[in-house]
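hiii, so i know i said id send this last week but things got crazy w the move. better late than never?? heres the sequnce for the chain we talked about at the cafe, plus the structure i predicted for it. fair warning i was half asleep when i ran it
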Amino acid sequence: MDKSVIQSAAVSKEVGSVRLAAIDVGSNSVHMIVAQADPDGAVTTLWRVKEMVGLGRISFPSKALSREAMDRCVASLARMQQAARQREAEKIIAVATSAIREARNGGDLIERIKRDLKLYVKVVSAREEARLIYLGIRSAMRLGRRPHLMIDIGGGSVEFIVGNDDDAKLLESRKLGAARMTAQFVKSDPISKTDIGKLRQHYEQELEPLLKKIKALRPVSCIGTSGTLENIAGLCRAEGGEAGVIDSSSVERLCKRLVRTNAEERAQLRGLDDHRKEQIVAGVVLVSTVMQMLGIQRIDLCNAALREGILGDYLSRHLPDLAIRKNIPDPRRRSVLDLARRCNWHQAHSTQVARLTLKLFDDLAGLHKLAARDREIIEYGAMLHDIGWHIAPKRHHRHSEYLILNGDLRGFNEVEISIIANIARYHRKKPPAKADKGYAQLPLTARAVVNVGAALLRIADGLDRSHASAVQNVKCRVDKKVIQLGISSNVDIQLELWAARKKLAWFEHVFKHKLEFEVSH
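okay and structure toks below
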């Protein structure tokens, strides 16, 4: 069984909560997530699994599902159904996409699943598939008011969406999936120059009218989701690229390299799943073509897709009281708060420390010169710095790091999660060091954010040593070699001052200024 599983920290089932499973029967694989929706609206992924079944391998050229592929699909769904029940899922929502949608005998498979497993699988239209993908991405990423292009490359089809937090302006699907295009155009291994030319020409002809419509909507960024794009990003990362990002220059280098390799050689590449070795050439040529035609410089990966959209759609229609999008519209913040709640966080203390950290960040902007996106990441590190107490007080900073890295934070890329985890880790004890693997593996720009975040967090944490929110406000005044930190409080804060002074060294190292305290009542 080819599968990848991520299991989050144990979550107790609250009164009024509901557990659901969402299954996506795709052309290459069957995916399932099991999630819990709580009365306060928090949705926590408990388990996820993927199995390769290869429904589209034969169905696209022959227009029929093979008996072997149907057997694999039914067996996979039986295992997932059992796993969902073991995790107390009260309802399983399953949808099927292009391979079953287009096959002559797709209805036979749906009937067999219904008969053998008592499981109803809904075959969704291409437009509905795009809508569900949009809902999944929107649940995990903050889109804001401006439009974004979203792309999902499946085995049979490719979905193109343009939308923002409010709605989708464009929902389109094209029969250009990696498995379909491989079957249609890849006639040799390695692929011939003639077939590469035909493949790229086909993409250009099929996409030109659609891409004109997309350009007219003026999307400000491009977001990608799907196994194909994740593998392309992994190959780019193996060559020194940024985690969770596909950039145009890396794609062009990768494209030139892959078209010269055979499947056996591709199987040895770091970042490529073995079962993608046959289809990755068609996938990377598609990405190269789209990026060139639209002038896209980078694609940011999102780990949420159709399955998360299935859950979101069900909850919005059947359990409206669980939705908190209006109260906390930012999915990243929702995810951070959800992790904090699961770890029984010290809410008052963590909120106070995050507030003081941000005030220091803003006052010292002229020194650290970090951006607004870095401010957000540092805030989340401050909010989660003490969740390690959920495991044990001793070494709780290391426990916080572990929980953040493995806490299923949604809407963040790998580097962002690592920055948050490192900031939390270094809020106490020894400061960041190149000998620390998790810190050393970060890009230099990310390390700079950790350095500043940890420096600010140490002082802010010291200033709430009593967990009494005794400090009302702080204000920094920067002189040539000294930062005067004014502290407002109506009570005695000697304990806070003692704790903050113990943490001065790293702050003064990062900012190259001495830090002095001035208390006013």
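btw The longest strand covers residues 43-52. thought thatd interest u
miss u guys!!
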